[in-house]
Amino acid sequence: MNRKKTILILWSLLVAFFHVSCMKGQAPKRPNIIFIMTDDHSYQTLSAYDDRFIQTPNLDRIAKEGVLFMNSFVANSICAPSRATILTGKYSHKNGQLDNRTRFDSSQVTFPKLLRDSGYETAIVGKWHLRSEPTGFDHWEVLIGQGDYYNSDFIKNGEHKSSEGYVTDVITDKSINWLKNRNKEKPFSLLVHHKATHRIWMPDTALFDLFKGVDFEIPGNFFDNYEGREAAAAHIMGIDKDMDLVYDLKMLDEGELQTKYRKSYERIIAQLSPVQRKAWDNYYQPILDEFKNADLKGKALALWKYQRYMQDYLQCVQSVDNNVGRLLDYLDESGLAENTIVVYTSDQGFYMGEHGWFDKRFMYEESLRTPLLMRFPDEYGIRGSKIALMVQNIDYAPTLLDYAGIEIPEEMQGLSMKPILEGESIQWRDAIYYHYYEFPNEHGVKMHYGIRTDRYKLIHFYEDIDVWELYDLENDPSEMKNIYSDSDYIDIIKMLKIKLNDLEKNIGVDI
Asked: What does the pLDDT look like over 308-335, one tens digit per residue?
């Protein structure tokens, strides 16, 4: 080998080394995106936030290998509006999806449309729940309405399809199948939308014995009397009085228990296969027999209902965690994890007996706050961190577009979280806005809007009532004492109302 050739080879190696060194620590320009969303999954039942009730190692893994958002909130705590907000990056009054009754205007700009237009292959599998057909997706395979936990029907690109099995497993199977058969030449965005953990919390038969004999911690305000909180007192979402023994708790007898939603439950379990129904009856019949023999009343009955609710709900959470693990394992085995952003969230939070409730809707913490975990490829250098800043589901669309290198439309009202994820020192929001519109409704929650800062929460219930509530979250994290009439907080209220008014002007609210 002559000297000139040797120098050329050494120079080539040096250039290659310099190129690799420069690239190290830089994020890929076009990451894949997997957005996993459950329905009504409370942050209290995800062990990265709270390990009192259940361990969720696969969900925790996303946080450990990425980011755990400690203060993640929704803009309207109800299914369809939350989904519309996530898709559009806009508040309910701007995207038009005020409640569950409205048909989503799918002609408007959404982040999947923008991803597809920029070269991504896009897909959604699971719950859609927006009445109109999905748009912006190369592939869509969605449940009809809420869907069912067992043997649920899907609509696949406009064609009706049946399925067999437990819906959380089925959605994961379909998602992995799409990943295997997608266009390998394009980056992708896959939305995996689970039905779980939505009411009526039907567990996988394989997990029936998971929490057998476990007594779950009872919230300190389980027997809340709602003193000083008129809107809360009007609720119809109490575990004691409103949770249906047959429909919610599966106590289907020969006919003595004629509850409000019994017939709905009978229709649902009629869809079980003979094998599924046998396992179902083998599990619930002994519980029914024990319940009837106990002849519970009053507080004892309420506490029994709480324990039953928790067991069924948490078994649904366990199935979600197991299936998230399956999806993460596939990403690792296929090599996709190297260039894929993984997001996990829920469309809102949920009450696990706090204030004696189940469901969501109120601006109180348990339904306002939602889990949010994000994992990035190693090249991003974002790993094992926690973010305490207040983020909201209006921020998801701008963030994903930002990471995909796509210009964020001016009409999107959320903020890209990319700067705070990458540790930039920027000015961030110091308050969030919330607005709930669906009234009247079966749960009796009044229309209301409000503002939350890092310490205070101001809520106005309106329409058929005119009531203000103020909470000092530092001194009253359980929101038990409405201090709106406390003279010591006059200046705080003035400040919050000014801030609320400014927020409403900025986002175009006209009440």
From this structure: 999 999 999 999 999 999 999 999 999 9
State yes or no: pLDDT of 236 exceeds 50.
Answer: yes
pTM above 0.90, yes or no: yes
Q: Taking the domain 436-507, which CATH number applies?
A: 3.30.1120.10
What is 27-202+313-426's CATH topology? Alkaline Phosphatase, subunit A (3.40.720)
What element of type H or E holds 180?
A: helix 167-181
Please state, in angstroms and as integers, the Cα–Cα distance from residue 260 to each residue in 32, 264, 316, 373, 486, following that order: 46, 9, 24, 38, 41
* Gap between the Cα atoms of 218 and 355, Å rounded: 11
**Model pLDDT for residues 257-301, shown as the tens digit of each residue:** 999 999 999 999 999 999 999 999 999 999 999 999 999 999 999
At residue 28, the pLDDT reads 53
Domain ranges of the chain: 27-202+313-426, 208-218+227-308, 436-507
The 3 state secondary structure assigned to 37-57 is EECCCCHHHCCCCCCCCCCCH
Buried b (16+ CB within 10 A) or exposed e, 133-147: ebbbbbbbbbbeeeb
Written as one string, the DSSP assignment of 244-311 is -TTTTT----SSS---TTHHHHHHHHTTS-HHHHHHHHHHHHHHHHHHHHHT--HHHHHHHHHHHHHH
Question: HSE of 14 in the Cβ direction (CA atoms, 13 Å)?
Answer: 6
Do 27-202+313-426 and 436-507 come out as alike in CATH topology?
A: no
Write the CB contacts of 237 (distance below 8 Å, at least 6 apart in sequence).
351, 357, 358, 359, 361, 443, 444, 445
